[in-house]
Amino acid sequence: VKRDVDERPIFVPGFGFGAAACGIKASGLPDVAIVACERPATAAATFTRNRFAAAPVTVARERLRANRLQAIVVNSGNANACTGRRGLADAHHACALAARALKVPPGLVAPASTGIIGTPLPRRELELGIAAAAVSIAPDGLWRFARAIMTSDAFPKVSTTTVTVGRQRVMVAAIAKGAGMIAPDLATLLVFLLTDAVIAPAAAKAIVRAVSAEAFNGLSVDGDTSTNDSLFLLASGAAGNPGAKAGSPAARAIERAATEVGVDLARQVAADGEGATKLVTIEVGGAPSPAAARKVARAVGSSTLVKTAFFGGDPNWGRIACAIGASGVPIDPERVTIRLGRAVVFRRGLGVEAGRVSAREAMAGQEITVRIDLGGGSSRGRLITSDLSHDYVEFNSAYTT
Amino acid sequence: VKRDVDERPIFVPGFGFGAAACGIKASGLPDVAIVACERPATAAATFTRNRFAAAPVTVARERLRANRLQAIVVNSGNANACTGRRGLADAHHACALAARALKVPPGLVAPASTGIIGTPLPRRELELGIAAAAVSIAPDGLWRFARAIMTSDAFPKVSTTTVTVGRQRVMVAAIAKGAGMIAPDLATLLVFLLTDAVIAPAAAKAIVRAVSAEAFNGLSVDGDTSTNDSLFLLASGAAGNPGAKAGSPAARAIERAATEVGVDLARQVAADGEGATKLVTIEVGGAPSPAAARKVARAVGSSTLVKTAFFGGDPNWGRIACAIGASGVPIDPERVTIRLGRAVVFRRGLGVEAGRVSAREAMAGQEITVRIDLGGGSSRGRLITSDLSHDYVEFNSAYTT
Fold first, then answer.
1. Which of A101, A138, B223, B275 would disulfide-bridge B389, Cβ 3.0–4.6 Å?
2. Are A376 and A286 in contact (CB under 8 A)?
3. What is the ipTM of this complex?
């Protein structure tokens, strides 16, 4: 899926961004990035559940316990995963270097990495890169940050919105790194949610949970995930609004805004799937629970037979029905309805012949929405994914990740 | 994967086989097949767990309650799935037609179907096909039967062995239909295990469970399965051996023989995967339970990133480790060992550089074995699968199944 990115300058009050190229990537492209806050920010995060969690994930988990961070130091080109004790030392070292350069306590810096697995980080390069990135920190550096965290991404991924909290307008910006046919696979997703709002720690945690569930759970974070998936929220508090407490109208408003930019980013990540030609959204309703709805959406959206049918523009509801039935969720086929775009293609256990022509039209576009009503409850779930093309096979068979 | 099939005549005492072409397949190739027994045979079976189980599966499940069958009537080209009441009536009708032609009670005939989903069976064609197949029944028709049940299969799949029970030699033959990148996807698998041994019903059920778990669980039957997956065992009793009771040495010997031919068939099915260029076996040991071992094997063997790496001959242990970690099985990365062929590529949380060259050699062949030791128990599991190639995408994006 092609995408033009309009890189108008973006400022998030309280935050500065730096980036540098230090040679971790063989391409010579930028590979170290820092986001820093003027003052310690309220912080929350969620990480991969992969048992082979990378060293930076282990270190970041520890750092997040106090719910405060002042900077995140990111490198691309090397995941620092499956690197043992050396990897943990390198992740700590990166934080210490960034902390010294920024003159902040090391305990307020968290690391993140993405790239190849199983190779130690090159220390000398990393040291130079962090020093250079720190020097370059500026309020207008958001797009440089977004570019420096890319690996196989074809374009940088940024989304912003504003929301009124009491009488103040606050900003929510989100930056992501991620490509690849994420779910059910293993390309890394890094997400940075930044806001100038004042948010209580409990409210920040609730926002991270909501964005993860609504926007990224279908993709990668918190699901079957790569070694490095991380989603951070930093609130600088520069807006000076009365602190948004958990459950308050202000916190809910910020949560809605964060979910909105999160979903936009998730769509950008799916559209940038390796070899993706179509952006596919699977919406499941009528489920007995949100977990059941997500399970069905994942089963359909991760079936290679369904995904190759999407690539071919084939309105093949049989493969979709089959994936629903194999999901493990107890459903009654007689109550299931499947729509491709607006066309009903399956209802009451039978295909609907009348829907075939408009379903084929719905499959022809760059965006396909599959709507599945299980007829067995009121819960919903969504998965954002892409099709499976020749280029996907080419890309992933020819390159070592 | 190329395969030459040596079609020497195979006889299984007590059984006859018929086949016919009646036009269910647009290609005009044979599409109706019958296996019939001289006398009512001891029967056991296992079927798909897919919630959209096809009409023939529903009917066959009922018929199997008495543990006796005298014939199975199979059609290819149409799965009779998602066909509602009409589909159930057609499945019953097929059994009734076969029963009349064979002069056996309709309750002793089970149906099986494979092919496109959501289109009703053409009744007139089916009637003619069953009549013609019944007329052609002969002891030497096993290969005709094996060919008539094919859909996207490139070659017929048959495996036989003999085993001594007491003082008698008995035969175990297995015939399968199945291609496609079966797990975790949805191509149909039909398996017919035939023996001339005398087996008690409880022993027959135990054999079906064992073969399903050892040979086909990783592939399809009993796992995440298509609408039509079915595995039947028929024992004609023509060998006249003292009846093999459940748990007896004789029953265990037959079970081993049946598992052997089952694994051979599973390998044939995987090798015939759509666009498959490599046969891949994932062997997991050191697991806390057989279910955990199978779960890890499935996670690795169904990852499209792992499968495309196999296609590219890339010894990418990072993707394998990542899939193990994402499997949901609680493992300790420090205790995991990964071998590609004989080469250790990952041990104690780190990649093993010395293994890289011989691992690359191991990836170059037509058969790849991945051995994973979780270091957390004594249970084992296996998945037989294939790589993911350009031809897979081509085949499945261009054709409606």
1. B275
2. yes
3. 0.77
